[in-house]
Amino acid sequence: MVLIALFLSYLAIVKKYEPLLLLPLAFGMLIANIPLAGLSTYDEGGLIYYLYKGIDMGIYPPMIFLCIGAMTDFGPLIANPKSALIGLGGQLGIFAAFGGALFISRVIPGLTPFTLKEAAAIGVIGSSDGPTSIYTASVLAPNLLPVITIAAYSYMALVPLIQPPIMRALTTKKERVIEMPMQKRVTPRMKIIFSFAVTIATLVFVPEAGSLIAMLMLGNLIRESGVTERYVRTLTTHLLNILTLLIGISIGATATAERILNLRTIIIILLGLFAFAFGTVGGMLIAKLLCKITGGKVNPLIGNSGVSAMPMAARVSQKMGQEYNSQNHLLMHAMGPIVSSTISSAVIAGIFISVLA
Question: What is the distance between the alpha carbons of residues 306 and 317, in angstroms, rounded to a whole number?
Fold first, then answer.
């Protein structure tokens, strides 16, 4: 485990893969596995034990959503509502991993079967949304929280490596050069109405997802209101950095050897990759369908943004689009599916919790 921690530190420092989260996570893993240090999450009365309470009590993930809302422009989704379908397609990974977890434990001899709750928590890795994965696992499968979190954030960090081969395999050269028209302007009033409407609808129909969605929408309301600039600066910088640091070190300190080094962990890591790949495929297929329906007005390269890896997936869309057509500007078009995916994955997590918890 110490070697794994050092390797993750190498990825964070040298390769710059999600260093803001991966570095404290790796360090938490390191200190938790030093004998007699007493710095794991399970050492009652220690520093990390109390820091972890923010996850255990469901505080950190909604607060992260508050910060994400303050950083996110919902305009691309409102301007192009059909892009929400791509975000829905990206949820294919959740159900693929959910089914895979239930199936694989029945075909590998000697493997303790995953329960429905554990399978659901594993499936949410496919959302590529770290806070949602943490929140769901903390409620449905606390025993799997360390490995689910590590898998979710590791695959988010590896978006630039995992997604491009899938994107190339599912698109043609003709599709990759499609230029998408500039989006219509969305007024702050429309964005404010959207935030209130989504909050009310979620709290009425899927209240278990309420804490995540409500905080996401509050953050966006703060951003778009135009009267709370100080809050925006605090949420998008200081508070986000503090929460990311606390989550990283707290989750890392749960990854002790006896809980990580086993066959189930390896399977969960592989199922996470399976889920992430299928989520990307689902988004790409819906984007290709929209391309056909609209007569070539949607570039399928934005389909990778059907997963919630914000903003990395959108950057991949932009980079690949410009590789094939220097006039391609797909970044904002890709943000619509990502916002939709973030909302959809939180709602699906809420449904899992309401049914299984």
Answer: 11
340 contacts: CB under 8 Å, gap ≥ 6: 77, 83, 84, 85, 86, 87, 88
Position 50 scores a pLDDT of: 93
- pTM confidence score: 0.89
Question: Residue 66: is it exposed, middle or buried by C-beta count within 10 angstroms (0-12/13-18/19+)?
Answer: buried
In one-letter notation, the amino acid at residue 347 is V
How many whole angstroms separate alpha carbon 339 and alpha carbon 323? 24
Tokens in use for 84?
A: 């929400």
| Tokens describing residue 175 | 């599709």
| Structural domain of 275 | 2-356
Residue with tokens 């996110």: 72
Dihedral sign from CA coordinates of 28, 34, 37, 43: positive
Residue 35: Cβ within 10 Å count: 5
In one-letter notation, the amino acid at residue 128 is S
In the block, which residue shows the tokens 């689910």? Answer: 148
pLDDT at position 185 is: 87
Who contacts 128 (Cβ-Cβ below 8 Å, separation ≥6)? 90, 93, 152, 155, 156, 159, 276, 279, 307, 308, 309, 313, 341, 345
Separation of alpha carbons 224 and 238, rounded Å: 19
Q: Report how many domains make up the chain.
A: 1
In the chain the first and final C-alpha atoms are separated, in Å, by: 31
Q: Which residues of the chain have pLDDT under 50?
A: none
Nearest Cα residue to 337 out of 301, 300, 297, 307: 307
pLDDT value of position 181 = 84
